[in-house]
Amino acid sequence: MQAAGPLLNGNFEQAPNRSQMNGSRVTGKYAIPHWKATGFVEYIECGAKQDHMVLVVPEGRHAVRLGTDSSIEHQLSVTRGKYYSVTFSAARTCAQSEKLSVSIVPGDASGGELPVQTVYTSSGWDSYAWAFKARQGVVSLVIHHGDDQVDDPACGPIVDAVAIRTLNPPHATHQNMLINGDFEEGPYMTPGSPWGVLVPPMDEDATSPLPGWAIMSYSKVVKYIDAAHFRVPHGSRAVELVAGVEVALVQEVATVPGRSYRLQFSVGDAGNRCAASPMSVQVATAYGGKRVSYESRGTGGFVRDKLDFKAEGNSTRVVFYSTGYHTTSDSSGTLCGPVVDDVSLVSVSHPHARRLLR
């Protein structure tokens, strides 16, 4: 398995044999090269029409559409014990509720359901990330559409541009007790894709596509962005809080009761016309919090701030969330929000930390 990149025929440009199709529907289980199709699966070409709607293909000329209780499956060669993140694009095609889930077989969990009801870009589709820990050297990635509350069995999301990346989580240090505080380690981003990758909420035991960080929400996401297409305060990656108070970025870290700590971070905008006066992020621990405001013109920039607190327990949960809801100023309805980056936590009594804080 490659360290990062598209799966074999992950963009579905290698077409099924026409003898194993009925119109756009795939009738042969192994008709799509490198994939196994189950249920009502269609092979979609860019510009195809459904009633009066033109179907959107996220990348290239072709994609697949998953109808009611259908799935696509791809076998992966991985390294046992390693962590991986899967990225793919999805677009809704019907007015009904569409439920898309991802799982690994064999695996310890049934997988995660992705919240595809909210569209975060004006294009009509989004890229999502999902992660897992490999329990065996050969596993199967399954993307499943399981909604049975629809009138049309063909109704379901379009899926395209499936890729994978090996995750290499950094370690906490005296210089930063937080893991991946600069967000440089995260899911695969397709080169040239200007829309970022959505990281959905996860169960507490789930593997995070953003190592060290959990996304806490009922149905909303955060957006992972890169410096090639957005303004990023530090390095090449950051997180944009696009769903207001409905989602929080969280990390739990071991602390010593009675010891003082300093949390430092950057808050800004992604340079994507997300203008707001002000744009605010709530930063919190169990022992204190503050609201950090940033006057955004939507052209990039950030402020640096800090939160000092004294721990009272053996662990401290660090939380970031946007206090408001924002859309870009181009009237497209694209959801946006404040950017969080370059987060560090140090004990102010540690000699390494004292040097850093001077």
Question: According to CATH, what is the topology of the largest domain?
Answer: Jelly Rolls
Please describe the biggest sheet, giving its number of strands, its sense, and whether it closes into a barrel: 6 strands, antiparallel
Low-confidence stretches: none
* C-alpha termini separation: 45 Å
CATH superfamily descriptor of the largest domain: Galactose-binding domain-like
Shape-level CATH architecture of the largest domain: Sandwich
Broad CATH class of the largest domain: Mainly Beta
Count the DSSP helices: 1
Helix/strand class: mainly beta
The share of residues in extended strands comes to over 45%
> Can you give the helix content as a percent range?
under 10%
Taking all residues together, what is the mean pLDDT?
90
Shape: globular
Order of helices and strands: EEEEEEEEEEEEEEEEEEEEEEEEEEEEH
How many strands appear in the DSSP assignment?
28
Report the C-alpha radius of gyration, rounded. 21 Å
Notes on the structure:
There is one protein chain. By secondary structure, the protein is an all-beta fold. It is built from 1 helix and 28 strands. Strands 1, 5, 8, 10, 13 and 15 form a 6-stranded antiparallel beta sheet that branches. Strands 16-18-19-28-21-24 form a 6-stranded antiparallel beta sheet, with no helix packed on it. Strand 11 and strand 12 form a beta hairpin. The longest helix is centred in the last third of the chain and has 7 residues. This is DUF642 domain-containing protein. It is found in: Secreted, Cell wall.
